[in-house]
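Per your request, structure below.
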């Protein structure tokens, strides 16, 4: 499925909570196609930047969003949970419960599956997160599902692998000499290019299935050191030396990513939504990122 004309003629309104990287990419394909996009952001400075791209903005926390929620035909939730729970539900559960959107999309993470020692997971795999962030996500997914079930809301959950794309690739670190090839035996990650995230979301919006859960990743889980090495090859620079995981100095956040290793299946987005990935593996994705650089 392409990202061209999608056949919508009635003005639709997307309300995007926590209008970040993936939501901005989706918006690029909605504006100009009879869509009104309203994004929330935390500051007036960020709001001004978003407005320059054609997006209406609301400051949240801060503004009263009750009327905006009531107007929205589609709702996207990118705001992540904390120990206190899901921030959107904390502030707006009652208003969302009373709303009648055609589609709600919740952006979650494949971290909900936990560690599978490099084994395969799909949407039916039990959720056994080993990190605190993964546990928060499971709690948030469950809370959204509970609200959706109680009020017949068209919830769709998208479990995203590691996101990359323009401005989010390994090239700057490789060029700067700060990239590290950290080696941990049997460690693999799944990834997804931001354009392919938008592609899946568009396909789901066009073909909603309330209650659906989809994994968003490419076709090839790979060791992180292979991605760094390939980026260096593309740039024609020396491949960074290997560092054993046990000896690497890492932040707690970075170390938590290495706590889990799994290969994520993406068959459902292809079979049910008809999606053909533009970037089926990191090599195609990195080649395109480098070619697009100014």
């Amino acid at each position: 499925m392409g990202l061209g004309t999608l056949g919508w003629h009635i003005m639709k309104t997307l309300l995007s909570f926590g209008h970040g990287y993936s939501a901005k990419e989706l918006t690029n394909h909605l504006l100009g196609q009879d869509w009104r996009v309203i994004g929330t952001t935390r500051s007036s400075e960020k709001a001004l930047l978003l407005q320059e791209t054609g997006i209406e903005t609301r400051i949240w926390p801060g503004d009263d969003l009750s009327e905006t929620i009531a107007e929205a035909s589609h709702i996207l939730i990118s705001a992540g949970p904390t120990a206190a729970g899901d921030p959107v539900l904390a502030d707006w559960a009652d208003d969302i419960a009373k709303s009648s959107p055609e589609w709600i999309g919740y952006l979650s993470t494949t971290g909900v599956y936990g560690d599978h020692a490099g084994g395969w997971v799909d949407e039916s795999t039990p959720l056994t997160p080993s990190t605190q962030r993964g546990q928060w996500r499971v709690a948030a997914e469950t809370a959204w599902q509970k609200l959706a079930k109680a009020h017949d809301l068209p919830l769709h959950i998208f479990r995203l692998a590691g996101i990359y794309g323009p401005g989010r690739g390994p090239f700057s670190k490789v060029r700067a000499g700060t990239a590290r090839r950290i080696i941990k035996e049997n460690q693999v990650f799944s990834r997804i290019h931001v354009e392919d995230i938008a592609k899946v979301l568009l396909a789901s919006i066009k073909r909603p299935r309330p209650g659906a859960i989809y994994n968003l990743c490419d076709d090839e889980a790979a060791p992180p050191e292979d991605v760094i090495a390939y980026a260096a090859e593309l740039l024609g620079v020396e491949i960074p030396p290997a560092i054993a995981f046990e000896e690497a100095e890492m932040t707690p956040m970075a170390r938590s990513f290495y706590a889990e290793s799994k290969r994520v299946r993406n068959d459902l987005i292809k079979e049910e939504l008809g999606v053909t990935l533009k970037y089926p593996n990191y090599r195609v994705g990195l080649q395109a990122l480098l070619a697009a650089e100014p």
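The chain has a mean pLDDT of 94.

Regards,
D.
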